[in-house]
Amino acid sequence: MMDIREVESGFAVAPQIQPDDLPVLADRGFVGVICNRPDGEEDGQPNIADMREAAQASGLAFHHIPVSGGEFPDAAIAAFRAVRKGTQGPVLAYCRSGTRSITLETLANPDEIEPAERLTRAAAAGYDLSNLSDKLI
What we know:
By secondary structure, the chain is an alpha/beta fold. 36% of the residues lie in helices and 15% in strands.
């Protein structure tokens, strides 16, 4: 069962999802999915090609913006922001635990909100990102 954590209206994060979850996401009103995991990060992880195919078969846009090793390159942050700002409708981002996805959302700040509010939203979704407070502007 998916552990979808709504961050705000129109955006949620989740730990790893499966190809058969994508029709369910479409039925729940999501229009796009962002994967923040590198392909082959761990055994048993669905590969990107299968996830993209299942998303497209369900009518969902699929974006792959992989990050790993606790690094969040500017290009990944910019790509995440562009997808979030350019998608009309609810988006779900996922990674192994959801932490990378919520971190990218917080750093990308597509809704242009104050740093304290971004940290509050992350905390309300179950993610403590207080370690980012000095990186947020």
